[in-house]
Amino acid sequence: MLFAGRAAAQQVTIPVETQHNAIVLQTDAEKHLNMVYLGAKLANTAEYAGISKMYKQADDSGVQNDAYTPSGSASLGEPAITVTHADGNKSLNLTYVSHTVSKVDDDISLLVVTMKDPAYDFEVKLYYKTYFKEDVTEQWSVIKHNEKGIVTLDKYASANLNLKGNTTGGFWLKQYHGNWAMEMQPEEARLTHGIKTIDSKLGTRANLYEHSMFAISMDKPATEDEGKVLYGAMEWSGNFRIDFELDVANNLKIIAGINNAASEYHLKPGVEFTTPAFLYTYSDHGKGDASRKLQSWARQYKIVDGNGSRLTLLNNWESTYFDFNESKLAGLLKDTKKLGVDLFLLDDGWFGNSHPRNGDNAGLGDWQENKQKLPNGISSLVKEAQANGVKFGIWIEPEMVNPASDLYKAHPDWVIKQPNRPEKYFRNQLVLDLANPKVQDFVFGVVDGLFTKNPDLAYIKWDCNAVIYNAYSAYLKKDQSHIYVDYVNGLYNVLKRVRAKYPKVPLMLCSGGGGRVDYGALQYFTEFWPSDNTDPLERVFIQWEYSFFYPAITSSNHVTDWGKQPIKFRVDVAMMGKMGFDIVIGKLSESELSFCQSALKNYDALKDVIWHGDQYRLASPWDNDAASIMYVSDDKSKAVMFNYLVNNRYGSGTKVPVRLKGLDPNKKYRVKEINLYPGAGSVLGKEDLTFTGDFLMNVGINPGNSAYHTSVVLQLEAI
């Protein structure tokens, strides 16, 4: 225990510091806890105590700086928490009681602040988990009471941040929207007075239309290398709500948590309600620095085996869809070996007998091998894969059910649906009720059964294609407003059990594309599927935006037949993450196959830099004819630079050198173009060139993107 404080007459100041940043909490005369600062760390810790004097305090307009704003008492802004007490009273007043700071290890600290209502036996604890080197904070709340009866939580946010009013430049919000095959569409605008809300009410696939991550720039929109910016994201795979309230004093309040719409939660005495974590990081060196902090944090602490390796693969989906049998798959297994990837992934369509899965309208829930397609079962395919020197993986969608299934007929009470309304389907399916422990056991059993029968199974692709319509749980009975919260917690219970038994088996997080990409889910997965849109030109933009929040090692990028780009362009784009293929190998020309095999060897040599190195965005596809992005190893001895022509109009291309980043200015680097198509010459004009890091970062290099060189990959090695 490093520090413990208890309420007293004097002001209590609590600085929460990381390597470069600080959050400062402070009590006022009435013992209310305020957040008075979030920004760059001060050199003198003692000076934090004087911050509040530099700002106007609460006035008659009701402006407050609450660290966790309650409703119904003296705070008049948007609340972080709203309750209905056991006696029906809806007011809440939270005052500071005490705090503790404990050191988890050399990098991680945990601050816990206890607040209570003086009139009711009601308590909120605020948790701030800080990662010193990465400048990342995870924040959540734990709510408990000992009143004589049920207390209803009407709103229960994870975090409440306050950013002080700045210059006339104000605050700028960068948010994301999308749809199927249109994930991560960015918008940036200045926040105006009032409340801006980003939210989801879809139940599952919660990020389908709005994404639960954002960036706030201060004074003006931050660039890649300049400006003050805060990145934030919910670690929650269900309905979320993030409020941005700009008050009359030009302060910005950010309240983030579970969406309380139709989700009031009934809390019994003595029971703790823990909200999901909200994570954030701040940088005064632009969006690039902030994103590298998040990526480093994710690899080190959040994603499964973030500092480890990944498997390249060949998927059968776009080559066969539902139409396959053992003979076809045997040929694809041979193609997997011929191509040179690690694993073959069998996608949708392998299960169901009474209701065979020959399309998306039947079979979900009946997870037995289809005897007509696979008379010898999955185990024979696993053995066949091993005979070809590759691993075997499989697709599942265990949270879902088709009405045309044995499971639906046997357990209609396991399905989320209103008892007195017509069923409404999304992709011909409904969602299983994971609030029900029996359903959790069933879903875990789907995964466990596959591994029990096939111990050498090496990969799972976990899909989730439907949203929740007509929300109703037969299990929850009168507590129907709990369904959206209990569903996600039920899903996490299943995933915890899977990871406890199979701690490092690679799992891909898929949701009809990127409909469920958040760190709440990713803590159980090794990678995610950014989008079903695999057109490589579109993927340049989609992967660019995901890179602000997620490291390259998590991004599953597949080479497919989507789009009009040549095979080289498609392969190069897929290399910027966890690479895979979803094409018919037999239809490749000899030169195309030779190129893919050679590119895989290059990828094998560079994957450690791509997966674990620092990522730098050099030229944005939104602003230029060509996009450039690079990855640099920790010791700055290796780097790789990807360049793509994204505007193919006449005369377009890279006109001036692109300045590189992250290199050692004193090192000399050999620059070589790789992934050359058979018979093609290098844009560099010779096999390789040598420059200092100083030259490359201040003068740059022209990758030569043009109509003849739409995709260029440059490898850098220190000599």
From TrEMBL:
Taxonomic source organism? Mucilaginibacter rubeus
Q: Where does substrate bind?
A: 180, 347-348, 427, 461-465, 510, 532
- UniProt EC number: 3.2.1.22
Active site, renumbered: 463 (nucleophile), 532 (proton donor)
Alphabetized GO MF terms: alpha-galactosidase activity
Which protein are we looking at? Alpha-galactosidase
Q: Mind listing the UniProt keywords for this protein, alphabetically?
A: Glycosidase, Hydrolase
Could you mention a single GO BP entry for this protein? Answer: carbohydrate catabolic process
This enzyme catalyses: Hydrolysis of terminal, non-reducing alpha-D-galactose residues in alpha-D-galactosides, including galactose oligosaccharides, galactomannans and galactolipids
In this chain the Glycosyl hydrolase family 36 C-terminal domain maps to: 627-715
Q: Which domain of life is it from?
A: Bacteria
> What Gene3D superfamilies would the database entry show?
Aldolase class I, alpha-galactosidase from lactobacil brevis, Golgi alpha-mannosidase II
- UniProt domain Glycosyl hydrolase family 36 N-terminal: residue ranges: 32-268
